[in-house]
Every structure is written in structure tokens, then in C-alpha cells.
Amino acid sequence: MNAIVSLIRGRDASPRCATCAHFDNRRAAVEAALPGLHSFGSAESAVRSADGVCSRTARYLAADRWCEEHRAREA
Amino acid sequence: MSVNSADLSKLPSQEQPRPSGFLNEDWWAVLIGLGLLATAVILFTQGSSLKWLAVAPPKWHTVSQLATQFGNDAIRYLALFVLWAGLLSIGAGSIGIPLARFLPSFVIVFIISAVIFMIGQWDQSDHYNLEPPLVALALGLIVANTVRLPDWFSAGLRVEFYVKIGIVLLGATLPITLIVWAGPTAILQAAIVSLATFFTIFLVARKLGLDPRFAATLGAGGAVCGVSGAIAIAGAVGAKKEDAPVAISLVIFWAIVFIFALPLVARGLQLPTGVAGAWIGTSEFADAAGFAAAQSYAGYAGHVDGITGHPEAAVNAYTLMKVIGRDVWIGIWALVLSIVASLYWNDNDGVRGRADAGEIWRRFPKFVIGFLIASVVTTLFASGHAFADYKKAIEPLLVIPVKNLRTWSFIFCFLSIGLTTRFAALANATRRPFYAFTVGVVINVILGYVLSTQVFGDFWTRFGQ
Fold first, then answer.
1. Which domain holds residue B187?
2. The pLDDT of residue B154
3. ipTM of this model?
4. CA-only gyration radius of chain A, Å
5. CB contacts < 8 Å between A and B, how many?
6. B interface test, pick of A6, A14, A40 with most B CB neighbours within 10 Å
7. Which of chain B's residues have a Cβ under 8 Å away from the Cβ of A56?
8. pTM, to two decimals
9. pLDDT tens across B18-71, in order?
């Protein structure tokens, strides 16, 4: 139960993947990482939300995830 | 640009990171589709029509007939090109596609689409199975897999953009009363098949030792909405970067097989159009692929002996099953699976997530809103007129022009599918994911057939009449 409560509450103060230098959700990057996406899908589709590729974990992640290794993206 | 080990802070940043909830492709499809419909309605109420602009090649018998018709309508085709190019350029430019690349590419897409549309209007096309979706797809596949196309050409091949605009325009020809009547059956049938397919793929994949996130990604690709389902769930559960492309490859492989196979098998079984549309909607994986299959089957009605039902019923039943029955639930699938992933599938890389009901809206396929609005608008508009008036004025001056625009948008889409599907560029699927996905495909097709023809067969037959 504690795990579920913690999951729902989350850690709002943590900086998210969306602002991390390891994370890229630009169309070109996502299309390059997911060959075939352009054929029957789209990197601009609403279902993709703001997901992107994390170069640290080599995972395709939602932009609202976080981890201790967050590194702010340069402006 | 490689994303494998890139330090993204140092990458060139012509394209900005994608924010959540911005004016994406779905919303542009809604704006363009509803804008066209609003224009058609306004012109109609002013005693005019979009008919002149929404040109479609008429039936022809000889090439000289075709040449004469084209000569007479050349200025209309040019005007239609300007309309599509203008609207699509605005949308494409807004989602970051450079106009200098999009426009030249779209010129080619439009010209080839016009040729394909004309081939489909040949009075012998049914005899030779030259339905526009199949011709567009086959031509595109042959070209894409034998010729090296320049990179700039891909800018105009926006499969999803075109199909979404087509779906919004389709709403204008589907009464909301029909959606309300048939929607619950479509949702029930689609839910049964989606759950059965997902759990089959997921459990077989797990049994074969695949990572649970990968298993969920594969399952969603087969059960919900193909490539879109796979990438939505891959993001929601945090799949490994190399796993999502495998799911995409498998979806594409089976989607292309079914574009050709489902209409042919349904034709062999002489299924009524409504039943075939429901089966295709239950068993095809990608929206665009299913429209190609359903539109092909619609072409058989009235031309192939033994196939009963209205031609539009194949596309309408397909749309209800796929869009209303399957696509709109992707946000709920994503939310549930993201919770499961956070609770039970944590890796040791320290990535954490938070359950957020906003996920349902963020991933909601917004074009469905345009589809429903278009349906409500035309239903309300038509309800104020007697049936005789509808047949005499509304149908030829309002509905058919919108239908023609829809057909154009779908042909752009079908051609783009073929031209963007380069088998050599797809990720290789190893045996285990292939087996897991294929077992799900078999269950999906059989269950979809039984539900469409036996359990709900009478319903979909009536729907088609």
C-alpha cells in the first residue's frame, strides 16, 4: 500500500526527464531511434505525448520520469 | 544524428524539445478537417457548394475519355492542389517540418495520387482488383524497396497526418445517431479482442523469457492501435530503446499482410460489408492499414457477386471498431501499465515515475474529437431537412464533396504507407518476439472473425444495410 501511495504522490520537487540533457524527445531523434515509426505512426502524434530517448539508461521514457542522475540541459 | 550515446546538450538545436500538450499533428488534423467541413456547410447555406473545388475523376472507359475529362477539369485539379498544399503546409510547418522539403514532396504525392484515383475510376478496375488503396500501397512499396528515395521526399509522406484528416472528414458522413447506436457493440467486441490479444502476447512473451516492458509493448501493438499503441506503451512503461522498434517492425509486417489478406479472405467468404468492416476493425493493427483494407472491400460491394451491404458500411463499421472501440482507450492502457511498471518492473537504473491520470488525456488521440464534432454537425444540419431534400441537395452539394476530399486524403495516406515502408530499414525481430506476437495475431484474427460473423454477425449485417 505504501508503494502505491508513494507512486501516486510522487516526488514533485525532482527535476524531470523533460529538462535533462540525457533526454531527447525531438522528432528527428525519436524517428532515428525508432525505425519504422514514420511508416504507420508518427513522432508528432498525440499518443506519443512528450516521450523521448534517454541516452543514460538507453530507454524510451515518458518526460515526467525522474532519477538521481538528472543533468540540466544547457540553454 | 545518433541517439545512442549522444550528449544531447551538445546537439544542434534547430528543433526544440517537444513539450507536452502542444498543438500537435492530431489537433492540426482536427482544425483542417473541421475547417473544410465548415467551409462546405457555409457555402451550402449561401446557395453555393464546395463541389467545384472537391473534384474527383468520374468513371471512364477509354483513355481518350479520361484525357478529355482531365482536360476539362484541369483547372479544378490545380485549385484542389493549391487548397491541399496550403492547408497541409500550414499544419506541417507548425509541427516542425520544413516547408522547403514538404512542398516539393507533396507535389509528387498529389500527382501520383491523382493518377491512382483515376485508375480506380476505370470501369474495369474492379475486374483487375485495382482498388485505389491497394494500387497506392503496392506502387509505394515497390518504389520504396527498389529505389533509393531522397531524404527530402519523406517530408511529404505523412501517413498519420493524412489518415487523421480523412477520419475527421469521415465523421461528416457518419451520423452521430449511428455512432451512438453501434458504438457500444463496437466497444464491447473490441474490448474482448483487445484484452484477449494483449494477454496472449504478453503471457507468451513472458513465457519465452522476454522483459515485461517489452512484452507489454508488443501486446499493446497487437491489441490497441498498432505502431501508435506500441510507442505509447513503450514510453509509459519505459521500454528499452531497442525493443520498441522490434514491436514496430512486427506491427508493420502483419499490418501489411492483412491489408491484402483480410479483404481477400472476406471476399472469398462473401461477408457482408458491415461484417467485413467489423472484422477488419477488430483484427487490423494500424489505423491507416485498416482503412486501406476496408476501403478496398467497400469497392467490392455491388461489383462482386454475393457481397451484400452498402459500400460505405465497410469503412463505417471499421471506423467504429478501430477508432471508437480500440484507439480511444490508449490513455487508459498507458496509465494502468505505467502503474504496473512502476510497482513491479523497476530496473536498477534509478528511473522513477508517478501515476498520473493526466496521462489519459495527454495520450488521447485528439483527432477523434474532430471526428465526433464533424458527425454531430452534419447530423444536426441534415436533421432540419426532409429526406427528399437531403437526396436532392445536401448529398450532392455538401456530403459528396466532403467525401471526395476524404478520398483524396486517404489516397495520400495509402501512397505514403507504401513509400515509407522500407523493409531493409526496419529493426530485425528475433524469433521469440516474433512467435509471441504471431500467436497473438492468430488469436486476434480467429476471435475477431467469430465475434464479427457469429456473435455479432446479425448486428453488423443490419448495420451494413
1. 5-463
2. 92
3. 0.89
4. 14
5. 239
6. A40
7. 349
8. 0.91
9. 665 567 899 999 999 999 999 999 999 999 999 999 999 999 999 999 999 999
Judge: A3–B244 Cβ closer than 8 Å, yes or no: no
Contact list, A9 vs chain B (CB under 8 Å): 354
Structurally, chain B folds into a number of domains equal to: 1
DSSP characters for B293-336? HHHHHHHHTTTSTT--S-HHHHHHHHHIIIIITTGGGHHHHHHH
**DSSP β-ladder status, A52-54 and A59-61:** antiparallel
Angle, helices B330-344 vs B226-237, to 10°: value is 30
Nearest to B240 among A44, A58, A64 (CB): A58
| Residue B65 CB contacts under 8 Å (≥ 6 apart), including other chains | none
pLDDT number for residue B464: 81
Query: Tens digit of pLDDT for each residue in B130-177?
Result: 888 889 999 999 999 999 999 899 999 999 999 999 999 999 999 999
Cell of B322: 478501430
CB count in 10 Å sphere of residue A50: 21
Distance from chain centroid for Cα B275: 19
Question: Do residues A29 and B1 lie in contact, with contact meaning Cβ atoms separated by under 8 Å?
Answer: yes
Q: Torsion angle of alpha carbons B187, B189, B191, B195, nearest 10°?
A: -170
Taking the C-alpha atoms of residue B460 and residue B465, their distance in angstroms, rounded to an integer, is 9
Contact of A31 with chain B, judged by CB distance below 8 Å, is answered with no
> pLDDT (tens digit, 9 = 90+) per residue, B291-314?
999 999 998 888 888 999 999 999
